[in-house]
Amino acid sequence: xxxxxxxxxxxYGTAFRGWGLVDMAFEKRKVxxxxxxxxxxxxxxxxxxxxxxxxDDEILTGGFCPRGNSEAVKKPKTNYV
Length: 81
Hints:
Layout: H1 2-8, E1 26-32, H2 33-37, E2 48-54, E3 57-61
Antiparallel strand pairs: 1-2, 2-3
């Protein structure tokens, strides 16, 4: 796919950071949803989230949000748990 875009001269991007990723600053921390999102937190479960920081990028994992992905375009799924 990338070679095809290059041949067409179409600009493209990729999330691959290259093998230099191993030398980038990496940090992992656990935080509660309300501490990270404040008023945007639903407050129902106050999920434990893991925040991975690679240089200036943050990656969030964990939790099981009872409201679903509230920033998505679609209507959130109902939580029956």
